[in-house]
Amino acid sequence: MSNSNYSFLSKFKKHVNSSVVLIFFTVLALICANIPVVKDWYFSLWQNEVMFSVGNFNFFSHNGHPMSLGAVINDFLMAIFFLSVGLEIKREIRVGELSTKEKALLPIIGACGGMLVPVLVFALVCPSDPAMQRGLAIPMATDIAFSLGVLAVFKTRVPVGLKVFLAALAVADDLGGIIVIALFYSSDINMMFMLLSAACVVLMVVANIAKIRSKAFYVTVGLVLWYMMLNSGIHATISGVIVAFCIPATLKKGTGHYLERIRKNINKFPVIEVDDLHNTVVLTNEEIHTLKSIESAADKMISPLQDLEDSLHFLINFIVIPLFAFANAGIDLSQMSVGSLFSGVGLAVMLGLVLGKFLGVFSFSWLAVRLKVVTLPAGADWKSFASVCVVCGIGFTVSMFIADLSYAGLGASGVALLNQAKLGVLCGSVVSALLGSYLLNRTLPKEK
To answer: What residues have CB less than 8 Å from 293, skipping those under 6 apart?
Structure first.
């Protein structure tokens, strides 16, 4: 019952709608960070400690210390975000745009270029100061919500093949970002918590093999895994991806079994010939039981993976990501000079996104097409494809997240570098969006 076109269209609508909310909270954060009346409140808000305690145990604690609100957003809520990303990646690999070699190859090749070249640009532009160079991975990511939002402006003028390419590339980018976070942003390893984390993973894998389909089970074990990983030294957000990969994507029985059960139960109801819209309807106990059996069969036709992904839609797109943007996009511009954007980390991040992303995605894809390894997306030519490659430079959510990881723990100098990186992400994303929109308008066929 998988349908990759439906999968893509539903994802496209979801991310486009959420991009408007994301823009609003990003602008709101910038306003709050620069208005004297609310500036102090805004920056102190994220330092408040968060407690979720049972007896002497505080769930939101790291190494025995309560977490701040900002840390809860960046470590806990973003783990839920990466759970959603992991579910999306797993679905795309199994039945979507990354499910076959023919579908996956171009986005994966483009994503590889889109991750490697921005890192190279950052390394070349940024001074050789080791502290500054910690931000190498910041321009690697493409923000799927903002980038698909740009394409949505052009409606039917954009070939479906180009939309699918961009969405699949952003998913592959996210996977690359997850690997980078796991490998390079972990601290000192606590072996006890590491072993407990491994036990949680083994438990979920065994449950999957045993065909346990309860979402509550995987979410509960996932919460335990998050706490263990938080205190193990491995970045806690990776727990979301691990849970996603452990959640079953198959049904307990085939779809035919559930469809047949639904048909049999529907046939138990008599044909209604009289309109009873305005009449009181009283069902027999047997009819109520039959309807509940239909409901149960319909629920079981949705895999736990897809069911959880759908359940998380509102939480992720209208609470988690807007909160993350509001907490992290606030930059005190009064503490920065115009020159900070044209030097150091700010310039390296901005050029990594605007120049590095375009060069990486386009050059790797062009070479693969010329070598006849892949073909261009259906309905696209080189001009429109290049325009979409420019849009790939919109890197917001994951770029901001990696920036925060890169310069954490460096004191006052780290705060200054983080602000430069955030400004680079914002400016690079805006330039990529505006330039990409201009080029798309010039290269796409006009509406008839």
So the answer is: 261, 265
What's the rounded Cα separation, in Å, for the pair 240 and 448? Answer: 45
Tens-digit pLDDT profile for residues 187-211: 778 999 999 999 999 999 999 999 8
Output the six-digit token pair for 228: 């263990």
Write the pLDDT tens digit of every residue in 325-364.
999 999 888 877 777 667 789 999 999 999 999 999 999 9
Between CA 341 and CA 333, with CA 404 as vertex, the angle to 5 degrees is 35
Compute the radius of gyration of the chain from its Cα atoms.
Answer: 24
Give the separation between CA 111 and CA 174, rounded to whole angstroms. Answer: 9
Helix 357-370 × helix 382-391 angle, to 10°: 150
With 0.85 as the threshold, say if the pTM is over it.
no
Residue appearing with tokens 């570098």: 417
Q: How many CA atoms lie within 13 A of 264 on its CB side?
A: 8
Query: What's the sign of the alpha-carbon dihedral 350, 354, 360, 361?
Result: positive
Q: Could you tell me the residue ranges of all domains in the chain?
A: 4-250+303-443
- Among 181, 150, 179, CA closest to 167: 150
The CATH class that applies to domain 4-250+303-443 reads mainly alpha
Query: Of 140, 132, 139, 167, nearest to 151 (Cα)?
Result: 167
pLDDT at 278: 62
Q: Please tell me what DSSP assigns to residue 338.
A: G
Mean pLDDT of 432-440: 95
